[in-house]
Amino acid sequence: MKRISIIILSLLCAFNVTAQKSDTEDMAIQGVIDACIAMRDAVAAGDTAAISKSAQDLKESGATNFKTLRCKDDSIGSLKGHLVFNEAFADSLAKGKTSVYDDADDINRSTAHRGQTASGSYLTKTCFVKAGKSTKWSFASKGHQEIAVVAEAGGLVTMRIHVTNSAGLNKRYDDTKFVKKGLPQRKTAFELPTNKRNTVELEIVNCGKKDCSFVIISN
Questions:
Q1: What is the spatial distance between Cα 42 and Cα 27, in angstroms, rounded to a whole number?
Q2: Which helix (H) or strand (E) holds 203?
């Protein structure tokens, strides 16, 4: 009997791991994630050809500004000197305009007003968090939800997610891997009720010793 119980427990654990893996393997926003990672890595390497390609990839990814994302604290800081994850910023860097870092806030605001593409299939927003600190953002969502965060080069982040609604839903989807050390990017997917307005609160923790920018990506 004990042996049967152990086998059943092992199967359940294996199923849970497989389910979690499949949740993030087939994400609709993966193309946007890949484009943002490629942009970050190309900028860090100073590869103008790769930067130019990442700009094109971002343009073709169907990403638009995450207008409904709202900051829930006073952590908003200047992006000056930091990477902005959008086509305009990448294009400027590809052309050798390093002064674009001084105009990071203006470029980010400009993108927020006009959006990155007309299609707007996926949502992105470049944000900022101080070293060793965290920042909270929230938005409303229903049904299948995908979220990813990509930090600029050298950035290490952890993601905490809290979902609530008026019907009493109170659930967390926090990172469980290297939460103290942080990782250069994070992603997750989960299902939300479709008949209720759900509030998703997203907390990004900067585990590094330097201030950093990061992009929030959502479906």
A1: 23
A2: strand 198-206
